[in-house]
Amino acid sequence: MSIEEIICIDPGHGGKDHGGGSNDQFKEKEMVLQISKEQKKHFERNGITVVLTRSNDEYLDSYERTLRVKRSQANYCISNHINAFNGKANGAETIHSIATNGKLAEGILKTLVNEGASYRRFFSKSGKSGKDYYFMHRMTGHVKTIIVEYGFADNKEDTDKIINDWKKYAEAVARYYIENVFDKTYIPEKEIASHNVKNLPKVRSFSKYPRLVKITEDVNAYEHPNLSKYSKMLREGTKLKVYGEGENGVWAAGGGLFFSKKYAVEIPQTIRTGGLTSSNVDEMENYFRKNNLEASVQFVGEGKNPHVLAKIKGGDYEKFCKWLDENNWWYKVM
Q1: Quick one: the chain helix, strand, coil %, rounded to 5?
Q2: Which of 11, 12, 147, 331 shows the smallest number of beta carbons within 10 Å?
């Protein structure tokens, strides 16, 4: 995968800092925490790990807040806010670093407008030093942070929209990142809720003859065959046994893990048979020749107690083990 599937979400303000985007109906610090937790739910359902800078009513100064962003190991951060100005301004804004081209900020703004928010602007801003004006850009290192202002708390139209549509706004922003940054197919909440044991994608089992695969690049593993509910990351080079193959290009591994087949290759396993008679050896040679199996086969031990060492993978491995079982021949997977 090209991007580590982690995102940092920053609910602005907190604690003694109520936030300027507050009014009689909500405090900015509380509304943006709600939005952030809603986004977290959508990201995690789609297999993205989320790190929140705060998960409760906690005050963070600029140093501590940006330190948590940098320590999150994320490449991207959403900093959620509610605006305020003079009572006349309205609409959503997104703010990007002067070091970026603004395409991500523009895309997020447009997706909010599609959910009913008014379009105000996307922009970046420099300080007198020539560096980013906003500390969430200036002090977060390599992390690409977008400040999202969902509307103006001192504008009635915006306030009504935020109160009624904050969940829609939260999901829209999460979905935009999932589809356009992490390049994943978005799984809506209602789709997951409708799944049960009977209608999850089927897994074709070959658990008696587990195949061996090697992970070719870091890949997320999930708890369900539809690749939902993130479980863990499988690192490049990891070798593991897979016990089933899903309908949509998914491997089922031990421990109830599911991951995309495109990030793994099947590798050979060595099978050692028991002692063979001369007729057994002939039968074995005929079997490999007749079935045209891709295997490295070594007949070991002339005369007394000959046996076979076969390096074989994938479907051929499964066929060979099944054939040995049908003939009641002892064997061991090395």
Answers
A1: 30, 30, 40
A2: 331
Burial of 310 from C-beta contacts in 10 A (0-12 / 13-18 / 19+): buried
Taking residues 291-315, report their average pLDDT.
73
Round to whole Å and give the CA distance between 103 and 123: 10
Angle (deg, nearest 10), helices 103-114 and 156-180: 120
Q: Which residues pair with 126 in a beta bridge?
A: 132
| Domains with residue ranges and CATH for the chain | 6-180 (3.40.630.40), 195-266 (2.30.30), 269-333 (3.30.70.2030)
The predicted pLDDT at position 198 comes to 38
99 near 130, Cβ under 8 Å?
A: no
Interval 19-48 mean pLDDT: 94
Spatial neighbors of 51 by CB under 8 A, at least 6 apart, are: 6, 7, 8, 9, 68, 72, 73, 74
Q: How many CA atoms lie within 13 A of 207 on its CB side?
A: 7
Contact between 319 and 293 (Cβ < 8 Å) = yes
Considering only residues 91 and 332, tell me which one the structure prediction assigns the higher pLDDT.
Answer: 91
Alpha-carbon span 135 to 139, nearest angstrom: 5
Rounded to whole angstroms, the Cα distance separating 117 from 150 reads: 8
User: Residue 203 and residue 242: Cα distance in Å, rounded?
Assistant: 11
Describe the crossing of helices 156-180 and 28-45 by its angle, rounded to 10 degrees.
30
pLDDT digits (tens, 9 = 90+) for 213-265: 899 888 888 887 777 777 777 888 888 888 877 666 888 887 678 888 888 88
pLDDT mean over 129-150: 97
Helix H or strand E encompassing 130: none
pLDDT tens track for 181-222? 998 888 887 654 443 333 334 444 445 678 888 998 888 888
Tokens of 4: 């580590």
Helix, strand or coil, per DSSP, at residue 143 = coil
